Amino acid sequence: MSGSGDAGDRHRKPDDDRELRRQLLGLLRGEAHLGFEEAVRDFPTDAINLRPPNVPYTPWAILEHTRITQWDILEYIRYPEHVSPEWPDGYWPDPDRQVTREEYEETLRGFRSDLHAIEELVRDPAIDLLAPLGHTPGHSILREVRLIGDHNAYHIGEFAILRQVMGTWPKRVSATG
Q: What is the pTM of this model?
């Protein structure tokens, strides 16, 4: 995963590399959009299995879908022999599944753990983010991290809208008390 040695590498500056990594971390954390932690903070666990009107999934299901997709892309980066789930069924839980609080918490832990692992890849200056992945020419870690960031941003935003529709955001405390 180190430098590919082509002529383009000679023109990249260390500051450019640091800036690229900083921007990718911002994308993953929600620099320009609602981040995961803010979206799930204080979500009432009695609402994890509720379906808002005209929505074919529960709040837990959208988070689980996001976790599965993020995990799959991380494994794709790390392990050439990784076999992705079948699309689309393998990326979405059963729409009728009802989960316990513990299963919901496991989804959150899994998402956080995999996000941390992705952030560690991005932070590691020994990893060439632009080098093609050996098992998939044309794909790079940069491409995969951008896919994760875009996918997460989309579904975290969707989760936030579900919260709005369901009325599960905490009441705001006024500045005057």
A: 0.88
